[in-house]
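User: quick one, sequence for these tokens?
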């Protein structure tokens, strides 16, 4: 579908959520000269962002977003999105008709659809536009964006999305972007797990993990995890790719719930969910997604660490 020639005029942009992904996304908007109002649950994080971007205003409440044409959300869960948007003093109590909420986090598709219904009653549109690519690509403005919503509204905000994404994919109606994101992350989680198992078997057999990783990346077994995660975050033992294991577990759960809602029982997907859940429960709180490899190392009694 071709983009509209008349994108939505954004005189003032709101942005809620300045975490690992939200901060670089907001920074991309600020670098493009956007007049912005920002808010984060952590006042110190919000103030740091304002200090780093002098043209940005920090919000003291959601009433400060009343003049925003578009408000971008980069929040971790649907519960938090609802608290921001539909609470007694949330965004919907203050945004004017014709404004747009763009949810760039990983929310539950059916809850996004419900949110869109509530927003429509106030004359506000909702676009779900979750992203893929991690912190590094967010910092470079090279994210992949999966957009769901009314076609005209999606087209209208696409120029804004291009300020932080190199590829904007229109998935379908509202909620479909979040569905696509969850399914993508189910596959991404599988790649992390199956690569770990292959490398652990190889290690047990006597093949150096770095050597086997080179084989995988030169052959048909390569995937995003082997190409971008294992050398930098696993074999290095830094385990700091920038995406929490618990958030990946949440996205796996969303994908599996979606499958069940469609009458599909995904055998491999259920196995991924079981292993990932066990890993998150066994590891210390807040660990990175790549740390699930440590759980598998312990479970199989073999390590990928040198020495």
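Assistant:
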């Amino acid at each position: 579908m071709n983009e509209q020639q008349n994108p939505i005029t954004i005189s003032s942009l709101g942005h809620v959520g300045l975490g690992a992904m939200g901060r670089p996304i907001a920074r991309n908007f600020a670098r493009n000269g956007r007049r912005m109002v920002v808010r984060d649950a952590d006042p110190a994080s919000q103030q740091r962002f304002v200090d780093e971007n002098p043209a940005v205003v920090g919000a003291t409440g959601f009433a400060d977003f009343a003049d925003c044409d578009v408000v971008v959300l980069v929040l971790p869960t649907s519960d938090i999105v609802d608290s921001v948007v539909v609470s007694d003093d949330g965004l919907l109590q203050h945004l004017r008709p014709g404004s747009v909420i763009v949810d760039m986090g990983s929310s539950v598709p059916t809850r996004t659809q419900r949110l869109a219904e509530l927003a429509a009653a106030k004359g506000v549109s909702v676009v779900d536009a979750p992203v893929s690519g991690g912190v590094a690509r967010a910092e470079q403005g090279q994210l992949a964006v999966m957009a769901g919503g009314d076609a005209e509204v999606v087209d209208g905000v696409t120029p804004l999305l291009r300020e932080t994404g190199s590829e904007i994919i229109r998935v379908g109606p509202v909620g479909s972007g979040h569905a696509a994101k969850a399914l993508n992350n189910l596959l991404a989680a599988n790649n992390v797990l199956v690569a770990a198992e292959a490398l652990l078997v190889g290690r047990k057999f006597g093949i150096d993990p770095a050597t086997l990783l080179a084989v995988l990346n030169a052959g048909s077994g390569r995937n995003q995890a082997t190409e971008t995660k294992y050398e930098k975050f696993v074999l290095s033992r830094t385990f700091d790719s920038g995406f929490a294991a618990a958030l990946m577990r949440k996205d796996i759960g969303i994908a599996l719930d979606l499958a069940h809602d469609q009458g599909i029982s995904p055998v491999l997907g259920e196995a991924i969910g079981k292993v990932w859940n066990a890993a998150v429960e066994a590891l210390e709180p807040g660990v990175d997604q790549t740390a699930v490899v440590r759980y598998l190392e312990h479970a199989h009694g073999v390590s990928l660490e040198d020495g």
